[in-house]
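Priority: low. Protein: Transmembrane protein 126. Input follows.
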Amino acid sequence: MFIERATDKEIPKGAIRLTSEEVYEYMIDLIHKWPSSTEIWALKHGNPILACAVVVSSSVILNFYRRQLKLKNYGRFTLFLPVVLTPSILNQMYQTTKTTKSILLQKDCSTCITTQSMFIQLGTGIIYPMLGAIAGTYMFGTKMNTFILSSNGPAIINEFALHLMKTSRPLYNRLTGFVIGHVLLSFAISYYQMENLDFLRFKMMQQQNEDIENLKQSKRINKLPHSN
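Result:
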């Protein structure tokens, strides 16, 4: 079955109308059942790859602040869940329900889709883990007395900010690398997902044309006179 977006005036006679959700479910089912994973690898495995990239950058960020605040093994699992696991799940969820869905439904332009994918990747792979790691490790550092603020009142904020900037400085180069890596990876995955969709649409049109031709041949055979 070939699927195409069209207005009411463009819908041909005999065409089956489907809602956006029905089209999306049909395409997802088609992708899952596609016999060759290599032909549509980005649609099948692209979002898990992006989620794995989030796990890598989140883990590096968390481990960096844990070492800086000398937490050793204290709170390792407690911090892993919100700082590493949660953003990877959010990444998979948002990339699937936002980016991939837009691609399959052909709702947005390619630039909009790739930009959206980049923002999701940076938000879940850099910003969220940074905020979570800083909040979590400094909280545990305060409890373990590996981080102590000597100031009182409003001056505490300045002291904390200065300590954070000094502590974070060795991480800047790695953060720059992660930002570039996430941007390039999300662009590549979304690009190849759109390429995979074009491949699927071509195959669907090809199959539909073959089915129409077979139907025409069947009708011609049935119209031929049969001898006893």
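The chain has a mean pLDDT of 85. Residues 172-223 form the longest helix (52 residues).
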